[in-house]
Each structure stands twice: as structure tokens, then as C-alpha cells.
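User: My collaborator sent over this chain with a note saying "see what the structure looks like." That's all I know about it. Can you take a look?
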Amino acid sequence: MNVEEIQRMKQRFRIIGNSPELNRAIDVAIQVAPTDLTVLITGESGAGKDVFPRIIHENSLRKTKKYLAVNCGAIPEGTIDSELFGHVKGAFTNAISDRKGYFADADGGTIFLDEVAELPLATQARLLRVLESGEFIRVGSSTVEKTNVRIVAATNVDLQRAIEQGRFREDLFYRLSTIPIKVPSLRERGSDVLLLFRKFAADCAEKYRMPAIQLSDDAKQMLMTYHWPGNVRQLKNITEQISIMATQRVITADMLQEYLPDRRTSMLPMLAGGQRQENSFENEREILYKVLFDMRRDITDLKAQVNSMSQNQQSVQQPVSIFTPDEGTTTVNVPAGSRKSTQKDDDIQDTEVYVEETLSLDEVEKDMIKRALAKHGGKRRGAAADLNISERTLYRKIKEYNLE
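Assistant: Without extra context I'll predict from the sequence alone. Here is the result:
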């Protein structure tokens, strides 16, 4: 590992941190840059994956040619083939002229395909052909065209799981991951979080002409043990919030805790390799399913017991109302003698048992999306990061629930 070269790259691209995992990722990027090998960059959202394609391009023989960064998750599915490969006049409605796509435009240079896992399967097949032969066909054309581009892709999705679910082509995965680069999450970088906090605090102080905030010892410890689901992007946002909102310049743990959303996530058990167990958006849905099914079973058992008591006893009966989300209010008769009480009969009041109404899963999902959008002022990128879903998925959900 060339330590001097790594430090030079950090200074050039303003990378903060000294963790071994980060240094290893930078070293791999430097080594692979002079080649034309395809690179797949993996890591969580907000971890800083976007800087590595620029390191690769700026240290390659293609550095004098064009560099294009394409967010595959932000392009609608119906137009992504046209964006990437171009189209001819009349290929579809509003195609009033020929258009060069990104692969033709970046000929000789580098294309960075961010959120590559969001590509439709048909587009994945087209991309595979470009990787294997450098050939592509514009939408609405039958002419094969050639391009000479270097492809660097990135994703925060587990592609092996996506392959098992039929959402990503296995052959494309192996073609993209000729050289894999794993960008560590912020919680894996140890004391780097303190260096980044200091840098963001200094930048904010300089920008708004105010004294820079500092952390007490207990606040530093809290910062290092927090889970950081949004990684470096989340740390920067929180640092800026504290810089503007805090009246004191020395931040204690109690003050810091007010700015850390749901700090309980930092207390999740550690897994092998130093990673904490995470509850993604999909895992939360599975938990909701289990809760709903358990609640429904409990209600069914309760109603069966009450009906059994009603049938087996012929004495004076007391009404019991059971409220269920799916059937409304059901009133059954319960024998008064079956209830034990030390009070007189005249003092016994009718008992109503209520089960709290539970929203459907769609309503829960809709509410979570509305809260995330409100939290980020309607900005989909931040909301998608909080929900741990892609911008494309969030866009589809917004349309599905008519939240535009």
C-alpha cells in the first residue's frame, strides 16, 4: 500500500479519515485506475461512494476525456434506455429529433452508473452487451453503434440478494464486479467521525462567520457509538444543525442527543465483523405483518372464549363489546356469575373490551413516507435515505399513494 499516494489522493479530493478500511478502498481505486477494468463500488447510502469514480477517472489514461455521472435511480423507467443509448427521430412520442445517449456522448471517457441496481432488466441486458462488445442500438433504430467507455458502477443494494429475487442479472453482476471496492460505513471508521465532525463544524463556522462548535468528552463518545444510518451525509447535516441552532459552543452529550434521531439504533447488538444488526424498511414491514397476525389470532381466541362462556351458562348475562378493526364492534353476552368480584351486584359495571385499531400496512407505509418527506422538506433524496429505499422506489410509492 502506497501511503504517500493515498495521502495525496485524500488532499486532492478532500477525503477526511484514516481508518484502514478507507485507506484500502482508496488504494484499490489508485491501482485499478490505469486499466480499463470495470469497477463495482458498494457501500451504504451516504458513505461517500461518489468520490471513488472520480479518483479512478482522474488517474486513468482517459482523464482528458469526458466523465459522466448518471443516477440510474432518478431516471424514469420509460426513458432510461433513451437517456443511456439515445434514440432516433420518431422512435416514440415527442422524439422530434435524433438524440445521442450517454454512452455515445462519453465515448473515450468514463461513465459512472450510480444506483445501478435500479436499472430495469431489459436495460440490464443492453448494458451487458455494451460491457461485452462495446455495441449498442439507439431506441427506434436497427443500426449497431460502437462506443469505447470505461464503466464504473455503484450500489447500496445487496446484489446477491437481488439476483436471488430475480431483480438483477447474475451475468451482469459478474461483468460489473471485475474489481470490487467496498466503501466502509461511518460506524466502521472509528475515530474518523470526530475528524469529520471537526471539519464540518469548521466549514460551517467559516461560512456563517461564527465560532466553531466543539464536543465535550461524553459527546465525543456518544458520536462514536451512534449507528449513523445516513453515514457521512447525516453527520454533515447534524453538524450544521447544531452549529446554527445551539446557543453554546461546547456541546455536551445531553445537547447532542437532542439532534440524534432515534438513538436506540446505536444500541443494537454487534454482529461478527463489528457490524451492528440493522432493521431496514423491509424488515419493519415483516415485523408489522407479525404483529397484525398475532393480534388477529389473540382477538379470535378471545371471542371464542367469550362465546363458549355464553353457551355454557344459563344465568343472568352481562354484555361485553369487542371492537376489531376488520369487523367493527361485536357484542356478546357473558354470564355475570362467571366474573369474580367482591363488590355487590348493583356496583358491577358493564365492561367493554377495546382492541386498538391498527392501520393497514399500506397506510403505515404511506404515513412513513409522508413523515420522511416532511422531515426533509419534500426532498426525495434525503427521504429515501432515511427510509433505506432508492429514489426510484420512493418516486413510485409517491405516485402510488398520490402524495405529489
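A starting point for your reply to your collaborator: The CA atoms of residues 127 and 389 lie 23 Å apart.
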